[in-house]
Amino acid sequence: MHPAPSVIVFTTLSGAGFGLLAFLALGLLPVYGLQAFLIWGLGYGLAVIGLLASTFHLGNPQRAWRAFTQWRTSWLSREGWAAVAALLLLAPVALAAIFGGGLPPVFGLVGAAFCLATVIATSMIYTQLKTVPRWTFWATPALFLAFAATGGAIMTGQALLASILCALLAILMIVAFKLGDRRFGEVGASMGSATGLGSVGKVRVLAQPHTGPNYLMKEMIHVVGRKHASTLRRIAVTLAAILPGLMLLFMPPHPFVLAVIAAIHLMGAFAARWLFFAEAEHVVGLYYGQR
Amino acid sequence: MTALPPPSAKKLGLVIDLDTCVGCHACVTACKGWNDQGYGVPLSDQNAYGSEPSGTFLNRVHSYEVQPDQGTAQVINFPRSCLHCENAPCVTVCPTGASYKRAEDGIVLVNEDACIGCGLCAWACPYGARELDQAAGVMKKCTLCVDRIYNENLPEEDRQPACVRTCPAGARHFGDLGDPDSDVSKLVADRGGYELMPEMDTKPVNRYLPPRPKGPEQEVDILAPLLDVKTTGFAGWLDRILEKI
Predict the structure, then answer these.
(1) Of A45, A242, B128, B159, which residue is the least packed, with the fewest Cβ within 10 Å?
(2) Whether residue A288 is found in the same domain as residue A179
(3) Residue B230 above 80 pLDDT?
(4) Based on the domain organization, do A168 and A93 belong to the same domain?
(5) Residue B94: inside a domain
(6) Residue A52 domain-assigned (yes or no)
(7) Are A204 and B66 inside 8 Å of each other by CB?
(8) What does the pLDDT average to over B31-39?
(9) Domain for residue A66, yes or no?
(10) What is the CATH number of the domain that holds B58?
(11) Which of B53, B137, B198 sits opposite A59 (nearest CB)?
(12) Residue B99: Cβ within 10 Å count
């Protein structure tokens, strides 16, 4: 699949943002006043920048409001609702932290639940697509949740919890890479089943239907970046999980150190999300004899 | 609403005969010609006369070589367009309700006024049936020429999809695949018509007819009868005299 920058920015930043908001909503970082303003502002900023980025790849962004109408069937629509609900429900919690004043913890709990729902809905947009076998199994929602939780834990300075989450994330990323590599074969789509000519014999492309590239090939058949996939996998796991995990264990949880760790984690998360798209093969490639 | 309607009794669709298709791409051209000026926004081209032209098409014709275990390889031309699936994944993923399946005849359409151009429906389709128009930013797909098949301003023989009407080989057939007594359903039953990628669980309406089995290659000199010249009249008399000398 084409790794569109807007979609990578959207899923990575909004995932980290909702992870951070969930941790703040659960009251894991007792901050007040200016500190609360800055950290809640960071959470809202990441989530909102991510959501805005998602509108950049639309053909007609002026109609984006229509995406809220089909929550009964569409994960994309559900994601919109969950995101807006989480941001609105957490506003009183954030304001209470900034300006003082107590709110019963149930406000934060409900808000955190909607943050969780948003991340799950984002992951389900991809997990639901049978056409992209690498995405359609449990590892996709697990990875999106692990990234959100790890990012949230780092940014709220939960050193021990964050380093445990980093270890989990590293294992999950490696397992997802390995299992993902087998998914296309497991689903069983082939040039034979795509054309139905497999029962006649071995199918090979004789002539492509068009001489130039088209939307399908640009969008679904991304072969350029896969050349360096194995190197990028190592970079992604190192930056997103291993290095932040070690730094959390051996460095003091000073805000500046945490900011550096968060930045390194996010760079790894961007690399991982780039691979998530670039490595995913769509079955339509079979018609073109490509993956 | 992007919920799928209950399965309709009437299932309009195409039956494509891979034995007969000659790969002339006339259906591609006819489709682009009709749909450029009828339903919805035109099908735009980008850099049409440049080094790397591309554009929106609702129908594409692939050519494959199929090598059986024994015997010679066959060339099979393979038109690919929307299969108007009963279990259409492109419909349910749509966040705006722009993508829908008609309850009355099963045609899958896009309401372009509600389409935000997110492209998720094209990702959900295993068959590459949907292309995002780069000029208008909305999703385009085969409409089964919904503006022809019910159009009483057209002569009756023209009330079928443009690709079917134009096919010079008679490789494309249009009809109600929900009616077991329709011509297309009988054709599918006779010829063992099949659906594409059944493992994707999309339940396509369109069917493809497999190429007929070919016999062993025959070593026949097709010019032999033409070379065996029988002469008559004066030339015949001359022929016989000269043979005797």
Answers:
(1) A45
(2) yes
(3) no
(4) no
(5) yes
(6) yes
(7) yes
(8) 92
(9) yes
(10) 3.30.70.20
(11) B137
(12) 27
Question: Count of CB atoms within 10 A of residue A233's CB?
Answer: 17
Residue of A nearest to B19 (CA): A197
A residues 207-266 closer than 8 Å to B (CB)? 207-216, 219-220
pLDDT of residue A46: 96
* B97–A70 CB contact, under 8 Å: yes
pLDDT higher than 70, residue B1: no
Domain assignment present for A138: no
Which run of H or of E encompasses B79?
A: strand B74-81
Q: How far apart are CA A9 and CA A78, in angstroms?
A: 19
pLDDT of residue A225: 67
**Averaged pLDDT for residues B121-147:** 96
> H-type helices in A30-138, by residue range?
33-53, 75-99, 105-127
- Looking at per-residue pLDDT, the higher value among A104 and A259 belongs to A259
Do A270 and A166 lie in one domain? The reply is yes
Q: Decide if A4 is inside a domain.
A: yes
Q: Is the ipTM of this complex over 0.85?
A: yes
Asked if B143 and B39 touch (Cβ cutoff 8 Å), the reply is: yes
User: Which residue, B40, B11, B39, B31, is CA-closest to B195?
Assistant: B11
Are B100 and A74 in contact, with CB atoms under 8 Å apart? no
Instruction: Indicate whether A236 and A122 sit together in one domain.
Output: no
Compare all CA atoms of chain A with the CA of B194 and give the residue at the minimum distance. Answer: A196
Please give the average per-residue pLDDT across A56-63, as a whole number. Answer: 90
Q: Residues A81, A184: one domain?
A: no
> How far lies B209's CA from each of B11, B27, B99, B109, B202, in Å?
18, 17, 28, 25, 19
Neighbours of A258 (CB within 10 A): 22
Q: How many folded domains does chain B comprise?
A: 1
Distance CA B123, CA A57 (A): 14
CA–chain centroid gap for B201, Å, is 21
Residue A204 pairs in a beta bridge with: B65
Instruction: Among A127, A183, A216, pick the best mutation site for testing chain B contact (most B Cβ within 10 A).
Output: A216
**Helix, strand, or coil here: A269?**
helix
Sign of CA dihedral B202, A57, B133, A271: negative
Give the integer Cα–Cα distance in Å for A120 and A169: 16
If one counts the domains in chain A, the total is 2
Which range marks the domain in which residue A68 is found? 1-128
Print the domain residue range for B37: 12-209
For residue B15, list its beta bridge partners. Answer: B173, B207
Q: How buried is residue B187: exposed, middle or buried, by Cβ count under 10 Å (0-12/13-18/19+)?
A: middle
| Contact status of A165 with chain B (Cβ, < 8 Å) | no
Encoded amino acid at B34, one letter: W
From CA A131, how far away is CA A54, in angstroms rounded?
A: 21
